[in-house]
Known about the structure:
Blueprint: H1 6-17, H2 19-32, H3 50-120, H4 127-160, E1 167-170, H5 171-188, E2 192-195, E3 203-206, H6 208-224, E4 230-237, E5 241-248, H7 269-272, H8 282-292, E6 296-302, E7 306-314
Parallel strand pairs: 2-4
Antiparallel strand pairs: 1-3, 4-5, 5-7, 6-7
The structure holds adenosine-5'-diphosphate.
Amino acid sequence: MVSITDPFKAIATWFSTSSKGKEIITILEQISKGNFSYKVKIPSGKEDDEHIQILKGLELTLRELEKLDKREKRRHKQMTKANKQLKQLDKNKREFIELASHQLKTPLASLRLGLDVLERSSRNWSDRDKQVFSEVKHSYDHMAKLVESLLETVRIDERANMQPKCQLNSAHNIFTIMEKQFRSRFEAKGLELIVEYPIESLRIRTDAGFVVEILQNLLENALKYTKIGIVRLEITEMKNVVEFRVADTGIGIPALEQSRAFEKLFRASNVKDESDVGSGLGLYYTQQLVKRLKGKIWFESEEGNGSVFYVRIPKDCVT
Ligand code: ADP
């Protein structure tokens, strides 16, 4: 009976003994090493020798691969250069914004001083004077806030680029920090804050600083955009992740605008008129922090009925 391995043995013997076979092996080795500049040794012989034809075919393939490889290396070099230029541009942009905002702060401080001095003599003003003064002061406040926001965008980009430092943390402790920071502020506004503490043993290996900032931003918004009702902070442990939830009974985000909520400087149409205290940077920044922790953030919201923000992060931080 003929063994199935016989033809393979014959091929293997040919490759290891004949000079053409050895050359083919060498070519394949060079290709696997990425050395496409290898020049194939084509022995003299009959043009129609099928092994010489194979070697010539491989020589052509190698030349094509060499061309592609050179093109790829050129493109990689260009990309690296473009990337470097982009980073430099970004740095220049940040430095410019920082410098411009700082420069603006000086005349703003003088303006503030002037306004305070003027206000001291407001007792003798006519109603018209008072109205003009109030408009000027309003414009001043707006301008000061814009400058602060500009500086904040720079700070945020820098902070969001920081690498998280992961350590074992107690979820219970993080909730205690939140409760201490927010309870009295919620009470002062007549809102109920419910903190659903996890079991004491729940530990997460994460950057607690990042998590605290994420929850602070979400609770800050819940406080800002809720007039009556309850705000709830909860956590659920799952297989490899934990899910934080901040739910409020506030004004909600209009359905048509929800897809833009995490964009820089986004402010929904239902807050623009009634609240002047926001920069539209909080959610953008929060999302950057969540991404740094390799997590996800999303929300459900109904205008007039409240919002629930969800943050899911790995229990064991992967950076
Ligand atoms: P801001 O400083 O304006 O609060 P954020 O980036 O934190 O900036 O939020 C962006 C916008 O998303 C807010 O201006 C507001 O319109 C909306 N928003 C965020 N959180 C809530 C919330 N809990 N309830 C209602 N609207 C919210």
